[in-house]
Amino acid sequence: MTEKSLHLAVALDGLGWHPAAWRLSPADAGAPLTARYWNVLAGEAENAALDLLTIEDSLDLQSSRPDGPDGRIDEVRGRLDAAQIAARIAPLTRHIGLIPSTSTTHTEPFHLAMAIATLDHVSGGRAGWRPRISARRAEAGHFGRRDIPALDTARLDEPETVRLVGDLIAEAGDAVEVVRRLWDSWQDDAVIRDVPSGRFVDRDRLHYTDFTGRWFSVKGPSIVPRSPQGQPVVAALAHSSVPYAFAARHADVVFVTPTDAGHAAAIVAEVRAAEETVGRVHPPLRVLADLVVVLDETSTLAEHRRARLDELHGEEFTSDAAIVAGIPQDLADLLAEWHRAGVDGFRLRPAVLPDDLTAITRAVVPALRDRGLFRAGYSGGTLRDRLGLPRPASRYAVAATA
Known about the structure:
The protein has 402 residues and is an alpha/beta fold. It has a single domain, classed as TIM Barrel (Alpha-Beta Barrel), CATH 3.20.20. The chain has 13 helices and 13 strands. Belongs to the NtaA/SnaA/DszA monooxygenase family.
């Protein structure tokens, strides 16, 4: 991997990121509810030596409305649990990183810590985690533990909404802190397995986390021994200053959504400023730019595909990320330009699966390799190794020797 090489990830969601993807996908509409479908997608991504894949999830049904069901019957509804999909993929892959998304708003951090640590063990050190908040009343209604006002996108700047979202992000920050402490609560050498002495573990190397905050009080220790990466990779999706600060405090990787190369450079500068403001002591965030991609053999065919998808959807599809419709070689040129602007890599969102994924793996990746921007294969190691992130020592082991 050369100095100029970039990181490349793919974001998997159902039959694709376009709401009408299921209408054009060659895969059966029920395929995302099968293990084989996800195994094939993961194998395709790994054959191209992608750094990692992410799996989307939420606690409510997909909807075109900002909050609550929309009543539409012409779009995919329903999904499998992202963390369990990752666990199913793990033993059938060898190199690619696996990052499921989970909600911190309605899930106990202890359970999250156990699930991701388990994934790191069964994958041999390839696990990651994308914490996300659940700001919708529809999601809260499934649990009945808290009342969240209905989300009104026209009133996002009102003090009550700003306070609510700020609290949810702060809660997510505490959740990540708890999860990281639990991952550290077993020292690397806590498991002894000494048959003659009858000692399986050294209890002095298991530690209470003793976290008490506004939202959580967690004693610890974990029930899962320390995993291969020590701490699996934490990723965050961020669109503005508050999420950038969250990522700077709590994450290893941040997914951002530039609109062009100049915007990409400005976002990278803002992320670096956020790191400085929060006093980040970890290695710098790996900044990956998100793009929704619609690819074909010619630009005209790609635009026709996009137009057909929008027609089936009934309106033009918009996204938080920029949408690129064109040929793989032009996309490779765009990635090279944005990479020069300062982003470390990209997370590509295929509009239709598996078609746009195979276009990425079989055409975009070779084009990037021709430009000297992407490696020819895997060199082994953990996901942290691949991203150039050091393996952190357990904070409790460091404290014990200080």
